[in-house]
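Researcher: Here's the sequence for the chain we discussed earlier.
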Amino acid sequence: MDYVNILWIIPFVFSIHELEEWNILKWYKTYYRNLPASTNVSIRIHIVVLALTSFLLTGVALAFHGTFLFSAIVVFMSAFVLLNFLQHVIWTAQLKVYSPGLVTAVICLMAVAAVNVILITSGRVDTPFYLLVFLIIPALMATLRVKGEMTKEVRSVHEFFIKVEKTLRIVWPGNTRNSQDR
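Model: Thanks. This is the structure I predict for it:
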């Protein structure tokens, strides 16, 4: 078994998870208040960038296999998946409605757990790096505190991708259709 290249499972399942959220804007508008001016386009840019970033991080980790950077990236990506899964569970419980992405977040978490077990048992990841997982606690606490709103951090990510969309429209102004309709 190739204990290292099994890491590619993480960005693959994470990308599938992100695609489940492709049309999440309508859900946001139904269940959230105080939303930023996100559009379908800005959200989809966000989704594509996150998915591509997960593949890029995996490539960097594999390029530095056997170093602390490999372990740090594996643990960071795993902690991010764990945080995202727990956020979906919290949103579903708080709002008493299905949070788009919950099913694939469960699948993603199971796949990431399996990859981590394989990497740990084969000695490929330095286990002290798993202390980094505790860094998700503030984000979890913020998610628990707000109900029916985005956390500051999630909101700032949305605002960033709204700016990205506006910048892209300046650079490539050819399409004037309302991005809310796409």
